[in-house]
Amino acid sequence: MLLSPVTLSVVTPMFNEREAVDHFVARLRPVLDALDEPYEVVAVDDGSSDATVSRLMQLRADWPQLRVVALRRNVGHQTALRAGLRASRGGYVVSIDADLQDPPEVIGEMLEAARREKVDVVYGVRSDRSTDTAFKRQTAGLYYRMMRRLVGPWVSDQAGDFRLMSRAVVDVLNELPEPRPVYRLIVPSLGFASAEVPYVRAERVAGETKYPLSKMIKLTIDSVTSFSAAPLKAATWLGLFSFFACVVLIAVALIRWLAGETVPGWTSLYLAVLLLGGIQLVCVGLLGEYIGRIYAASQGRPAFLVAFDTAALDVATIARPVPGGPITDDVEAVELATPTPTSHQPA
Fold it and tell me: Transmembrane stretches, by residue range (predicted)?
């Protein structure tokens, strides 16, 4: 028994989005139905601790195109997106968040642009971020300017994770071994032909932001260390700076000693130790960040584990043999783990 092919897959990572799920489905389903294309919606639950999964299971009873992929624990937005890309089956794949800050109505424009201009990637570019706070706009602008400088000019300004990709792009992404992918940088670095569709960024429809300052800082660190060795070069320059600073301090000390001046040495000693100690700690921290990533990659542990996928459940139900009779459907046996009450708790 084979699943019917789909033209479009919409991948949506979700973490504690119970308040937003109904609003999201109410906006997304009419848009996809109006496209008149075979589609699926892959909702990836990233270890939610609220009723996100149970509500999705209720909604799919009336929406067969809705597919729920539940992860065993919280692994982060980018890794949950990775799980959704691997599960998707469409010739085109759209990634979008469930908070409705990125409008589902733009999906049709993306699909039309991809076919009209014969490109593999269509980025949703935020033309207006007035609904964001001033701090959010400033830090986002700083992030993209830094990434364009460190990673390359091909990084699209103000393009997040709202994009359409062809199956060729998704297949390449699924083959990458990176344990901490940052898709807003990886996708443009691949060099596939692309186009852009502008849109106005809206306010979050419900719930709280899943990207507070701490996660924004983590995303920046992941972005920099995954795509650039600039921090290591900065550590080298800091080391050179500290060396020349020490040479100057030594020269000053010798000159004063030869001049017969008697000055207390604790101030210069204190400053020198402070300078050297601080720079050394910074350099060790930078080295540790890169070595930690090498160590994590060498372990080869899975980035995520799927508790259940409703597509597999549907196939298993259809292919279930009559008691005492032979299995006639060409379906591989699949062991499905029944999720426990703690399987969706964030780590």
Answer: 237-257, 269-291
